[in-house]
Fold DUF1211 domain-containing protein.
Amino acid sequence: MSMNKSRVEAFTDAVVAIIMTIMILEFKTPETDRWSGIIAEVPYLFAYIVSFIFIAVAWYNHHYMFSIAKRITKKYIGSITFGFLRCRCYQFQLRGRGVI
């Protein structure tokens, strides 16, 4: 059984957009309007940038795979779902290692 490529691709684009939105919502407003307040948030910004780069690379590779795929199977959908779980966990991995 194969699925419609355009529907799956649109769904995965929406998931990536949601992941990136959730990531930016985790930013905290600085306690003060001075540079010291902004500098205190640099680790969060670093984690966001690293996570964003990883997700952007995964998204690009995902679209490349869609361009060469002839059909989409349930197994491929499962691997996409697991890949999105990994993408969402990048920021948590950085937090767990003490980066943020």
